[in-house]
Amino acid sequence: MSIKVNQLTKQYGAQAAIDHISFEAKKGEVVGFLGPNGAGKTTTMKILTCYLPQSSGQAEVCGYDVVTQSLEVRRQVGYLPENNPLYKEMYVREYLEFIAGLHRLDKKQQKVSNIIDRVGLGLERHKQIGMLSRGYRQRVGLAQAMLHDPQVLLLDEPTSGLDPNQIQEIRQLIKEFGQEKTVLFSTHIMQEVQAICDRVLIINHGKLVADDSIATLQQRVAGGIAVHVEFAAPIVTKTLLSLRNVTRVQTGSAPNQITIYAQQDIRADIFKWAVDNKQIILEMRREDQSMESIFQTLTQGVL
Questions:
Q1: Do residues 116 and 144 touch, judged by C-beta distance below 8 A?
Q2: Which of 14, 20, 163, 193 has the fewest other C-beta atoms within 10 Å?
Q3: Which fold does the domain 223-299 belong to in CATH?
Q4: Per-residue pLDDT tens for 177-233?
Q5: Distance between CA atoms of 63 and 77, rounded to whole angstroms?
């Protein structure tokens, strides 16, 4: 596993910023790390990058312990903090060459040129960082995190301050990076999670409340996969309960509008039932729970 966390805890006096959380992330995975402000996301990332020691529990990155093998961990990790600290008086290329020197990279000039092109900083490379827009400064932070080709990329709000076009470009970059490496990133943009994540971790009040794929979470929160059907005439809802794997049937705003919840997608079974019972379907669609709804449910104590 690229990231392995076991019963990780961080105490500040009587308050637990993170409370016995455990999770793993493997190579080739893009994992969204979600939670309300103050839930413990940044604290977890700081422990994984060896900036902050845990109170108890273990954390490993690429098989190296964050406490006893911190230098090896730092070689494996690229990190973009939430506040993105930069030397604003330095020029973009100058700064990235400085970072390359810290990593003692071979072919420094070539690698800096490659990362500048990769994150879209070509036109800004000779500008002073302090003169850049927030979006371009974010790109500089992402460039320094990726410059040494780390095995694990930890991103804290990576698209903060970017315009819609820039967000799309950075999302694509994260997806490409995540095909061969491990990406763990926090965000409050739920569409971003649905667009690029293989899996989602949700933390609330320092405790991990979800660790699953988006599809599985949608089923868990909704009580199954929801299929909305509009028939040409009113339907006796209890007759639909005989369908295989159906868990619940709910009437909508009109008696001919039905939402059917099942343990799997049963649109084909519904169509066959309609044909057998001489019912006409005007509309049928699968209704997945939005990430916003899932997030609110899991962080407001509904489950």
A1: no
A2: 14
A3: Alpha-Beta Plaits (3.30.70)
A4: 888 899 999 988 888 888 888 899 999 999 999 999 887 887 777 667 889 999 999
A5: 12
